[in-house]
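Researcher: Quick test of sequence recovery. Tokens follow.
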């Protein structure tokens, strides 16, 4: 067998091969043939596009998650509100049933029994505590306040009226008028006139507003505010000519005008 000395093999081909390998290594490292940073514009553009796409995809995914969370919250809120209203309606029916006897005592002028019950049936005080936040509970609060007014316990009546809350226009105006009555009974006429006007101007109507305006006029006159009193009567004349208070307003406005 013939022995070949590797030192006698020409190295020109190997040198070229090694040179190619070195070039590949430099490209991988981001360098050109002169060992300077190599920049491929097409590759950079593709990288930018890929980053934009990834950012967009992340944004879309985040928006979808927020949308799904909002939908779940709305569904949960709707279900909760439905059951809350259902529960409130049930409580209102129970409260109205329990108020029946107390209203009877109120209309009969038996205000102690109307407030505290008769030993068998509850009074307004217990009903409003048992059914806080219901429409019937707030109606019981108004009844209780007026009952205290009839008992001449004006401070208790006013404190309860200050806590009265109702979205109903008639009850809300009635509560303000009752506050006006309480202040009038204590001869605090500047407060009385303010609450009478609030009652008259809360969703004005031809049934109750003229009455509240007439009361406001009396309170203003007692406080020696004759112009304001006259203006209340003029409102009745101009806005409510069919009212039972129209003739009285004509007479009183003429009388008060002479004092101005």
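Model:
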């Amino acid at each position: 067998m013939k022995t070949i000395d590797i030192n006698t093999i020409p190295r020109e081909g190997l040198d070229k091969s090694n040179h190619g390998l070195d070039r590949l290594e430099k490209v991988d490292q981001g360098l050109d043939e002169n060992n300077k940073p190599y920049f491929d514009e097409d590759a950079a553009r593709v990288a930018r596009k890929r980053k934009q796409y990834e950012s967009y995809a992340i944004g879309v995914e985040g928006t979808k998650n927020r949308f799904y969370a909002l939908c779940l919250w709305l569904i949960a809120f709707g279900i909760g509100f439905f059951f809350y209203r259902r529960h409130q309606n049930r409580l209102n029916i129970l409260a109205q049933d329990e108020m029946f006897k107390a209203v009877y005592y109120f209309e009969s002028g038996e205000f102690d029994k109307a407030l505290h019950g008769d030993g068998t049936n509850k009074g307004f005080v217990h009903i409003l505590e048992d059914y806080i936040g219901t429409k019937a509970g707030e109606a019981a609060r108004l009844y209780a306040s007026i009952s205290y007014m009839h008992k001449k316990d004006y401070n208790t009546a006013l404190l309860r009226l200050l806590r009265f809350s109702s979205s109903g226009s008639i009850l809300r105006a009635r509560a303000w008028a009752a506050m006006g009555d309480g202040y009038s009974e204590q001869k605090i006429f500047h407060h009385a006139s303010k609450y009478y006007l609030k009652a008259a101007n809360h969703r004005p109507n031809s049934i109750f507003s003229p009455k509240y305006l007439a009361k406001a006029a009396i309170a203003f006159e007692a406080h020696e505010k004759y112009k304001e009193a006259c203006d209340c009567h003029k409102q009745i004349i101009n806005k409510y000519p069919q009212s039972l208070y129209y003739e009285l307003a004509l007479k009183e406005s003429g009388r008060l005008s002479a004092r101005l």
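Residues 13-21 have pLDDT under 50 and may be disordered.
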